[in-house]
Amino acid sequence: xxxxxxxxxxxxxxxxxxxxxxxxxxxxxxxxxxxxxxxxxxxxxxxxxxxxxxxxxxxxxxxxxxxxxxxxxxxxxxxxxxxxxxxxxxxxxxxxxxxxxxxxxxxxxxxxxxxxxxxxxxxxxxxxxxxxxxxxxxxxxxxxxxxxxxxxxxxxxxxxxxxxxxxxxxxxxxxxxxxxxxxxxxxxxxxxxxxxxx
Length: 198
Prior knowledge:
This protein is of the alpha+beta class. It has two domains: 39-80; 86-196, Immunoglobulin-like (Sandwich), CATH 2.60.40. The protein is 38% helix and 38% strand. It has three helices and eight strands; from the N terminus they run H-H-E-E-E-H-E-E-E-E-E. The chain has helices at 6-33, 41-80, 120-127; strands spanning 86-94, 100-108, 111-117, 131-138, 142-153, 159-170, 175-184, 189-196. Strands 4-1-7-8 form a four-stranded mixed beta sheet. A four-stranded antiparallel beta sheet has the order 3-2-5-6, with no helix packed on it. Strand 2 and strand 3 (111-117) form a beta hairpin. The chain is elongated and about 105 Å long. The model is unreliable at 1-8 and 26-32 (pLDDT under 50).
């Protein structure tokens, strides 16, 4: 069995007793004041401050990523669809009592470029004034033909399929076309109009 040097052991015991006496003295003085010492208060406050700083940093980083994502999207749009060759087609509805929209198929110069199937929520959004971007693409300057085929249910739950066409001249700058579905009150049937935005 190993024996410790007397002088080292005595010094360690004396140090330990001094620490105990100091702790007891601190406890006694705290009890005299009627409050117990809170050793965690400083560290908890510092930790909470660190968490707030970290949370703020994360929020700033999220905002930066969202801004960067938006800028990249706009840059991608400009690169893929330059303004001088861009054609965009939008779908809108007015009232919709005589026609329940299911899908829209779009042909540009005899080639199908878009085919979209609408959900009930999307149709409700269109009836409430929303506009859906159905197609964005590039075309050369000159004359082009656009044909939209609308499929859905008409009055008395009958299947309905109707086409509308537009011949337009593509010049310099973007071209915007709107496919509008509206109710023709006089004939109690839907009306499909393809028009250019000025």
